[in-house]
């Protein structure tokens, strides 16, 4: 490896380390605050918070690494352009390909790491998160319920009780609100015994209370008074998107569901997209003389926003069967490659004109 490549790699690598570290810290802090709030509200257990944050950070690295590399290339080469070092490199007879070669030395390992994270670490982390939530987020597990507070789950079911005894699984002066399609169910009881707190077969026994079935159209409301009432709440179902994110690559490849195919294409394309983003940043980082190294950050931010939203939209369209699976999610990396080739052709065309 020549001196120029090592110099450019060194400048870029330092920026990558700082930016990715900073973004990871910000994301981890935000996730910790979010899940600590859920723990305070009784939605999940406190012990699960830090495990979930770790898994969330592992998932986020799939996005943070390409972003860090993209911004680092832009800043490092922007500084070289601002200090006229790129002009000096080209004036010495070096080809512009040296810039791309130097960035590729760094982008390829990052792309491989992103691919490994996306293909293996991300689905594993999602499966661990779902298992933790199933173990600690049971809405009927009295160890995680708090008295005199609205205990909510992801489906909107709310439990409010004056007193909660975790030893006997007994709730006193309890109110349960359960929304559903077209109807809302409200249960009011002097006491409630949790007979089965599991998420798969939940079961409770109400004592001395009233049950209301409220029709959203207001035409079929119903109310019942009871002494003892055994209720089996509808267990929470895992959505297709949730299942696909935690599924293994072999499961995704065998599945016929478009959502699974979209997820597989998303995983396979992350590493290539990271490399293409870094190469695009080389052309987009070029500045005019006496311009600051941050003068290109706005167009770079716009390009990144377009790539980010286009990737998510294409995945959603494939999952909804609106966009065919070929090219599917690969449409965005394909457009990035075409854009890169156009920028390269333009760059070498300008260079040839300057040398004449």
Please give a structural write-up:
There is one protein chain. The chain is of the alpha+beta class and 356 residues long. It folds into two domains: 3-136 and 241-355, no CATH class; 151-231, lipopolysaccharide transport protein A fold, CATH 2.60.450.10. 59% of the residues lie in helices and 16% in strands. A six-stranded antiparallel sheet has the order 1-2-3-4-5-6, with no helix packed on it. A hairpin with a 6-residue loop joins strand 4 (183-196) and strand 5. Helix 4 packs antiparallel against helix 7 and helix 7 (258-284) packs antiparallel against helix 8. The chain is elongated, with a radius of gyration of 28 Å. The model has no long low-confidence stretch (mean pLDDT 83). It is found in: Cell inner membrane. It is a multi-pass membrane protein.
What is the topology, as strand order, of the major beta sheet? 1-2-3-4-5-6
Shape: elongated
Task: Spell the H/E element sequence.
Answer: HHHHEEEEEEHHHHH
Q: Main sheet, how many strands, which sense, barrel?
A: 6 strands, antiparallel
Class of secondary structure makeup: alpha+beta
Oligomer classification: single chain
Round the mean pLDDT to the nearest integer and report it.
Answer: 83
**Terminal-residue CA separation:** 30 Å
Poorly predicted spans: none
Helical percent range? 55-70%
The rounded Rg comes to 28 Å
Beta-strand percent range: 15-25%
How many separate helices?
9
What's the structural domain tally? 2
Task: Please provide the count of β strands.
Answer: 6
């Amino acid at each position: 490896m020549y001196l120029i490549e090592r110099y450019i790699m060194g400048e870029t690598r330092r920026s990558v380390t700082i930016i990715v570290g900073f973004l990871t810290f910000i994301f981890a802090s935000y996730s910790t605050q979010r899940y600590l709030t859920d723990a305070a509200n009784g939605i999940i257990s406190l012990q699960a918070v830090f495990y979930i944050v770790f898994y969330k950070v592992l998932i986020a690295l799939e996005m943070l690494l390409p972003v860090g590399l993209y911004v680092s290339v832009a800043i490092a080469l922007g500084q070289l352009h601002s200090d006229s070092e790129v002009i000096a490199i080209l004036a010495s007879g070096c080809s512009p390909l040296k810039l791309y070669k130097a960035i590729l030395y760094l982008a390829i390992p990052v792309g491989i790491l992103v691919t490994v994270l996306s293909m293996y670490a991300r689905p594993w982390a999602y499966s661990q998160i779902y298992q933790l939530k199933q173990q600690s987020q049971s809405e009927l597990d009295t160890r995680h319920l708090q008295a005199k507070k609205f205990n909510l789950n992801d489906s909107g079911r709310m439990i409010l009780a004056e007193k909660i005894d975790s030893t006997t699984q007994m709730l006193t002066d309890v109110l349960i609100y359960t929304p559903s399609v077209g109807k809302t169910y409200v249960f009011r009881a002097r006491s409630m015994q949790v007979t089965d707190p599991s998420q798969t077969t939940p079961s409770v026994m109400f004592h001395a209370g009233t049950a209301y079935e409220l029709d959203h159209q207001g035409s079929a409301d119903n109310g019942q008074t009871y002494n003892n009432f055994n209720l089996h709440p509808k267990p929470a179902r895992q959505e297709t998107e949730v299942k696909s994110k935690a599924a293994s690559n072999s499961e995704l490849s065998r599945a016929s569901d478009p959502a699974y195919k979209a997820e597989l294409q998303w995983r396979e394309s992350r590493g290539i997209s990271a490399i293409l983003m870094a190469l695009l940043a080389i052309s987009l980082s070029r500045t005019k003389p006496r311009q600051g190294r941050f003068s290109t950050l706005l167009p770079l931010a716009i390009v990144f926003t377009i790539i980010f939203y286009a990737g998510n939209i294409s995945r959603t369209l494939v999952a909804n069967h609106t966009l065919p699976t070929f090219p599917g999610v690969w449409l965005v990396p394909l457009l990035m490659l075409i854009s890169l080739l156009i920028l390269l052709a333009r760059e070498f065309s300008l260079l040839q004109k300057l040398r004449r």
